[in-house]
Design goal:
Elements (H helix, E strand, L loop, with lengths): L35 H15 L4 H27 L8
Helix pairs in contact: 1-2
Length: 89
């Protein structure tokens, strides 16, 4: 007996009563692996460090940040465009 209305399931997906769990309704879309978050964080770090050391670090950090954010947004836009129509917002 389970609480909360749903039948209790073991980790294998079988109800305690013995019937199989229904299949998942749809697949979950996960973005592909990318280094862009790390590059963006490194660029921000360069900007912050550059505020105390050198204007050159700030300039390099801003350039890298702009390129990384542009690439990240364009990759995400391309991924969203590839989704089925019912998944777009």
């Amino acid at each position: 007996m389970s609480y909360g209305g749903a039948p209790a399931r073991d980790p294998g997906g079988v109800d305690v009563e013995g019937s199989q769990a229904p299949p998942a309704g749809e697949e979950i879309h996960l973005p592909g692996p990318t280094l862009l978050p790390i590059v963006t964080a490194a660029a921000i770090t360069l900007i912050v460090i550059g505020t105390t050391i050198s204007i050159i670090l700030i300039i390099v950090g801003v350039i890298v940040l702009i390129i990384a954010v542009f690439k990240w947004v364009s990759d995400t836009s391309r991924d969203v465009a590839a989704l089925p129509e019912e998944h777009r917002h």
